Amino acid sequence: MDSEEEAFGRIINAIASIGETGATIDELSKITHLERHTLSKYLNRLRADGRIAYKRIGRAKVWFVSKAPLQHIFRLREEDQTYSEKIFSRILSDIPEGVLVLDFDYNIMFMNRYLLALYGDCAGQKYYRALFGAGKGKGFEAYQDQIKGIIEGSVEEVESQVEDKEGRILEIKARKVENPDGSFSIIAIIRDISEKVRREERIRNLSELHKLLGEAVNRSYTIDQLCSTILENLSAVIGYDMGDILIYNHENNLLSSSAQVGYPRMEDRGKRNTVDEWKRGIARAAIISKEPIFFVKGEKKGGDELFYYNYASELAAEYGLQEIYAIPLRTKGEPHGALLILTKRGRVLSEEDRSLLGGISEGIAGGIAKIKVEEELRVKANAVEISINSVFMADTVGKLTYVNPAFLKMWGYEGENEVLGRSCTEFWRQKEGTEDILIAVQKKGDWEGELTGVRKDGSEFKLRLSASLIIGKKGPLQFVAAAVAE
User: Fold this and answer.
1) Which residues, 6 or more positions from 250, have their beta carbon under 8 angstroms from its beta carbon?
2) Dihedral sign for Cα atoms in the order 90, 93, 99, 102
3) pLDDT tens digits for 15-34?
4) How many C-beta atoms surround the C-beta of residue 250 within 10 A?
5) Which of 46, 148, 263, 308 allows an S-S link to 285, with CB 3.0 to 4.6 Å?
């Protein structure tokens, strides 16, 4: 008596021998010499295992060897599925990633609901045409070669990241599996990772922009130089056609262009002034609103937005622009200006681009604020250097840390190396009272009075000294004093 597995083999061979038209139970009974009730039981067992399938023709069933068991299960009406098939089909259909089954000629045998939603029913089509389009190029060719490696047996499993015909980034993992009839298929797990890739790219770009911004701040000595470098760096990471950075002056409440790129040369001075006024109007709107503003040609604005919409419309018409994006540059709540990014027809700023610009806007404002302070300090330092009055600084114990040229001239020294590090009490006669001056400055914050200075050659002269205390976050830092000969 045949074992069940031997009987199963005879049934499958019998179905295959009849051909692609399928076999009825009567035909199978004659070939296998099995009674109808026994044969019916075996057929249902084989169908439950996914090794064979049937089609209804009227009230009769025609049996086939299942070369695509998953596809067969999903095309069955639910009432024709076994309990296990129902559970399996529901799990596989609702799994939150794609399941694709290919034969060894790149034909799609099965795709689950995840992939059906992306590409429609592509069963029977070549997978590289269905997912990537005909002649997709390097990306799909590389993946086709990997699949070819599975077919030829050089690899068991492949993993790749490719772009499909719709521009989605797919993560694909594929391996060879053996079907119940002894044939082989390729099963691939597919995920749309476009959003993940965009996030990672944004993080990389944001990191790169912050690095470039830090380098620009460290290497720039003027605001114009800093802003020009920032616009160049932005252009390297975010494609745009024209750009401006306008700096806000708190003293006169005015905006002035510190740097711009991409604009054609304009000889008409009057027209140039008009264009600059349009840009200042857009920048002013962003600064006042404290939020980025986004203009797209053809989109109507109203209400509070109307006052800058006219400026943006005129600017767009002048240069053939499609979009204008204005970002306020603020740090610690204080406005420092605005960044304008302009794109022409055929080019748009993606949400990732706008997110990147917003992500570094405070860093740009911080860099501008830093350069402003440094420029102010350089101006003050230069003023001190060229002052006709003698100016010096000393630490909290009275040792000189800075002297200007007027000090050296007044006391008769040739270089600052002769005086720095020495106690300021060495440069006037009343040594017993000079400590009281330091104590007074520390207590009151300032001191003013007359002293007798002692030059390098020992000669004396009368002077009037005004001293103040510089206070830092952690307490007193330096004494600063100015001396005038009487």
Assistant:
1) none
2) positive
3) 888 877 788 888 888 888 88
4) 10
5) 308
Q: Residue 138's pLDDT is what?
A: 47
37, amino acid identity:
H
Decide if 311 contacts 278 (C-beta within 8 A).
yes
- Average pLDDT on 114-126 reads 85
Q: Name the more confident of 277 and 96.
A: 277
One of 3.30.450.20, 3.70.10.10, 1.10.533.10, 3.40.50.300 is the CATH number of 84-192, namely: 3.30.450.20
Give the contacts of 393 (CB within 8 A, at least 6 positions apart): 400, 401, 402, 403, 478, 479, 480, 481
Task: Provide the residue type at 250 as one letter.
Answer: H
DSSP, residue by residue, 18-33:
H-TT-B-HHHHHHHHT
Q: How many residues does the chain have?
A: 486
Q: Mean pLDDT, to the nearest integer, of 212-216?
A: 83
Phi-psi region of 137 (alpha: psi -120 to 50; beta: other; left: phi over 0): left
pLDDT tens readout for residues 222-275: 888 888 988 888 888 888 899 999 999 887 888 888 888 888 888 788 888 899
Q: How much is the pTM?
A: 0.55
Phi and psi angles of residue 288, each rounded to the nearest 5 degrees, phi first: -65, -40
Q: Is 387-485 the same fold as 220-374?
A: yes
Q: Is the pLDDT of residue 154 over 90?
A: no
**Which of the four CATH numbers 1.10.10.350, 3.40.50.1380, 1.10.10.10, 1.20.1270.20 does domain 4-66 have?**
1.10.10.10
Instruction: Give the domain ranges of the chain.
Output: 4-66, 84-192, 220-374, 387-485
Domain 387-485 has CATH 3.30.450.20: yes
Cα-based distances in Å from 319 to 236, 241, 264, 315, 322: 22, 10, 9, 6, 9
Name the residue among 224, 296, 233 with its Cα closest to residue 260. Answer: 224
Residue matched to tokens 């406005």: 335
Topology at the third CATH level for domain 220-374: Beta-Lactamase (3.30.450)
> Which two three-digit tokens encode residue 411?
């006391």
